[in-house]
Specification:
Elements (H helix, E strand, L loop, with lengths): L45 H23 L5 H8 L2 H32 L4 H16 L2 H9 L1 H4 L2 E5 L5 E6 H4 L2 H26 L3 H9 L4 H31 L11 H12 L2 H30 L11 H16 L5
Antiparallel strand pairs: 1-2
């Protein structure tokens, strides 16, 4: 006895019947010709429009207050926005940011490698470093390094626990600027180490296994295979840390270093114009972080080439495409 597994043939459908899945047909009560006179109506979202209008009203009120409230003192703002002392302070802020970033991520890469090491001693030391420097506030670290000469009058180099071949005074080497760079770099390294470690462990282990199966050396695996893929995870968090460091340089005012916020304090302490000088510092911080954000976008776009065959268009490319489509839009054609 044999059992057939073939389904019975479907009954022939009349030529005018569009089928059960169509919007027309015997089950809907509509003939194909009756749809010609129907009009498509877009869904209305009254609350969406209401909340958007309320947000615009609040924004317009805020801008109106900026323009009409004399307490903002925009004349003083324009006077000091491009003053020489402010521009020099911006240079010092960028200098501290650059030094802290280079030192922090260089040391952070070493600490991350130690945390990923197979040595229990290196892993423990790296974990302890991250734990300590992430636990202590930045301002406390800066004040501590600024007063390091109180603990150690002189530093020497030689055999550990043995004779020294030379020494030098701590005050002569580690001044205010050196203490600020050291504090910012060591603080940044703790966060950079976790960012780098997170990016490395985010890469699929099969990538390293495939590279090892092909006989690729471990150093080349890390440099040419793991790191380019890890950069897609590292870059967003790393850029956030650099921007946070740029703003965090304002903390070094406790060491009387002439960065942007400290210089604004000096000027409004002399003139009494607190609000316009704070706005000077605020607008410059916004400008600097905007520049860093633009750089972050293009660096991320560069490292996304391995994940996307065609990178998405940049905002400038989108703007150019929109401007080229304007004649077709205004003439009623399709862009």
């Amino acid at each position: 006895m044999t059992v057939s597994t073939k389904a019975p043939p479907a009954p022939a459908r009349p030529s005018g019947d569009p089928g059960p899945g169509s919007a027309t047909g015997p089950g809907t009560g509509l003939d194909p010709g009756e749809l010609d006179g129907l009009r498509t109506v877009r869904a209305r979202h009254p609350w969406r429009w209401a909340t958007g209008a309320a947000a615009l009203v609040v924004l317009v009120q805020f801008l109106h207050g900026l323009a009409t409230n004399p307490a903002w003192d925009w004349a003083t703002f324009r006077l000091y926005f491009t003053a020489d002392t402010i521009l020099q302070a911006i240079g010092r802020t960028l200098e501290l940011t650059a030094y802290g970033t280079v030192l922090g991520f260089a040391l952070g890469a070493v600490v991350a490698a130690m945390r990923l090491s197979r040595s229990a001693i290196l892993r423990t030391l790296a974990w302890a470093y991250v734990w300590v420097f992430r636990s202590i506030p930045l301002i406390v670290q800066l004040v501590f390094w600024f007063n390091l000469s109180y603990l150690y009058k002189r530093f020497g180099f030689g055999i550990p626990f043995g004779p020294t071949f030379g020494d030098f005074e701590t005050v002569g080497v580690l001044g205010a600027l050196g203490a600020a760079v050291l504090g910012l770099g060591l603080h940044q390294a703790a966060f950079a180490a976790e960012i780098i470690r997170g990016g490395v462990i985010a890469v699929d282990a099969g990538q390293r296994e495939a590279a090892a199966a092909l006989g690729i050396p471990r150093g080349r695996q890390a440099w040419r295979i793991v790191l380019p893929q890890a950069m897609r995870s590292i870059l967003p968090a790393a850029a956030n840390e650099v921007i946070s460091l740029l703003k965090g340089t304002s903390v070094v005012y406790v060491m009387a270093i002439g960065e942007l916020f400290y210089q604004a304090q000096v000027i409004y302490g002399r003139t009494g114009r607190v609000v316009p000088l704070l706005m000077v510092a605020t607008v410059w911080y916004v400008v600097l972080t905007t520049v860093l954000s633009i750089g972050q976008y293009y660096v991320e776009r560069y490292f996304s080439r391995g994940a996307r065959r065609t990178p998405p268009p940049t905002p400038l490319q989108r703007l150019r495409a929109f401007l080229r489509s304007l004649p077709a839009r205004t003439s009623g054609g399709t862009p």
